[in-house]
Amino acid sequence: MSRINIAIAGVGNCASSLLQGIEMYKNSPEDSIGLMNYNLGGYKPGDINVVAAFDVDKRKVGKSLKEALFAKPNCTTVFYDKLPDYPVQVQMGPVLDGVSEHMADYPEDRSFVVADENPCDVAKVLKESGAEILINYLPVGSEKAARYYAEACLEANVGFINAMPVFIASDETWAKRFEDKNIPIIGDDVKSQVGATIVHRTLTKLFENRGVILDRTYQLNFGGNTDFLNMLNYQRLTSKKKSKTQSVQSELKVALDSENIHIGPSDYIPWLNDNKICHIRMEGRGFGHVPLTLDVKLSVEDAANSGGVMIDAIRCMKLALDRKIGGILTSISAYTMKSPPIQYTDSEAKKMVDDYITGRRER
Ligand SMILES: NC(=O)c1ccc[n+]([C@@H]2O[C@H](COP(=O)([O-])OP(=O)(O)OC[C@H]3O[C@@H](n4cnc5c(N)ncnc54)[C@H](O)[C@@H]3O)[C@@H](O)[C@H]2O)c1
Questions:
Q1: Torsions phi, psi for 178 (to 5 deg)
Q2: Quick check: is 186 in a domain?
Q3: Which residues pair with 265 in a beta bridge?
Q4: How many angstroms separate the CA atoms of 10 and 23, rounded?
Q5: Model pLDDT for residues 80-121, shown as the tens digit of each residue
Q6: Do 287 and 343 belong to one domain?
Q7: Cα 179 from chain centroid?
Q8: Is residue 148 part of a domain?
Q9: What's the rounded Cα separation, in Å, for the pair 16 and 343?
Q10: pTM given for the model
Q11: Which among 90, 35, 59, 58 is positioned nearest to 305, based on CA atoms?
């Protein structure tokens, strides 16, 4: 099979974990632990090849990609450090609203520090690099910056995977622009492999299937990475809370009143680094209206958890490029994203993705 040329916007923890995983699985072909698909439509993890990367942090811009992936403030677990000397230097992107002002109140090792460089022309770099797909890993709340990178993809004819909660794939106007140019798009906001969202959705479906009415629920999340530090700025949080809440609400026939559902990032605890802790509580009534409660605690390494999903989203997008299919990729968006254009249950979405991979389904 041919290689899959990707570009990355935001060389943070998710990018680091994804690229570590790609190399690890490439160099141990018998190992499929942690993957939903080792071979996806003929593509293996090692077929993914990075050709361009953009960031704005002074410890990453102008550095080799390998150096940038392990540079501060990245703090995710290093589970594979034998990365190649990628022939890629991290380029300065436009900062726009990518960096929250409150970051300046925290130690440099923990926060973003903007490089004193002029931004490159992202569309031009994408064209020259031969990138086929751009992954958007910008911080939550980067509304203008996320749209800038989406625009660059439209200009450069590059597929767009939106891993964060700015509504682009799920926005009709944006989706139509990708459809009109026959450029594939997957989004929005990655739903991790076994993360808070899919666990909460699965339990919500369980209540519903077993006739238990869910009266109220919360999902509290905290961690010590820059994603959680960034989200201490509540003004940047609106889209993240909306994305996470609607993902759970969509499993219910009748949505909960907003005062009975609370889902969101809740605090920043530096020593947790990239370890994310999630507490879910569900209160409902079963047979005879008798109350029941469920409490769950989930502990995950946040970035690796998203890598396990992104590695399939990339390969599904490559299949679309091979098949000359553009616009929204409905099935893989529903399976891998919290806010896809159309929500399906996770079991429906899995079946749809399997059919898409084998070609029984167009998108
Ligand atoms: N499990 C997960 O980790 C998970 C799940 C769902 C969604 N997400 C989302 O994915 C995104 C990335 O997560 P992360 O943990 O890698 O974040 P991170 O904070 O580690 O990385 C963000 C990177 O973006 C860079 N950046 C800031 N502004 C920029 C700009 N204008 N142009 C280019 N780069 C810029 C920062 O310097 C940093 O390197 C976040 O929005 C997060 O909410 C992550």
A1: -70, -40
A2: yes
A3: 221
A4: 19
A5: 999 999 999 999 999 999 999 999 999 999 999 999 999 999
A6: no
A7: 21
A8: yes
A9: 29
A10: 0.97
A11: 35
Contact 141, 237 (CB under 8 A): yes
The last residue of a domain, from among 302, 325, 349: 302
- Separation of 262 CA from ligand 1 center, angstroms? 23
Q: Residue 215 in contact with residue 260, Cβ under 8 Å?
A: yes
Tell me, yes or no, whether 310 and 280 share the same domain: no
301 ligand 1 Cβ < 6 A: no
Q: What is the DSSP string of 234-251?
A: GGG-HHHHHHHHHHHHTT
Q: Is residue 363 part of a domain?
A: no
- Give the domain CATH number at 130: 3.40.50.720
Which residues sit opposite 219 in a β-bridge?
Answer: 263, 280
The whole-chain average pLDDT of the chain stands at 97
Look at residue 266 in the predicted model and tell me its pLDDT: 87
**Domain co-membership, 237 together with 150:** no
Q: Is the pLDDT of residue 1 over 80?
A: no
Contact 330, 363 (CB under 8 A): yes
- Pocket of ligand 1, candidates 92, 306, 337, 338: which has the most ligand atoms within 8 Å of its Cβ, to mutate? 306
How confident is the model at residue 360, as a pLDDT? 96
The residue-averaged pLDDT of 22-40 equals 94
Contact 277, 296 (CB under 8 A): no
pLDDT exceeds cutoff 80 at 181: yes
Count the domains in the chain. 2
Digit-coded pLDDT (tens) for 135-174: 999 999 999 999 999 999 999 999 999 999 999 999 999 9
The enclosing domain of 273 has a CATH number of 3.30.360.10
198: Cβ below 6 Å to ligand 1? no
Domain range for 348 is: 4-191+304-358
**pLDDT for position 29:** 85
Mean pLDDT on 35-51: 97
Protein residue whose Cα sits closest to atom 12 of ligand 1? 137
Cα torsion for 351, 303, 273, 101, to the nearest 10°? -110
Same domain, 282 and 328: no
Looking at the fold, whether 18 and 30 belong to one and the same domain comes out as yes
Query: Is the same domain home to 9 and 133?
Result: yes
Share of the chain above pLDDT 70, in %: 100
What separation in Å is there between the alpha carbon of 137 and the centre of ligand 1?
4
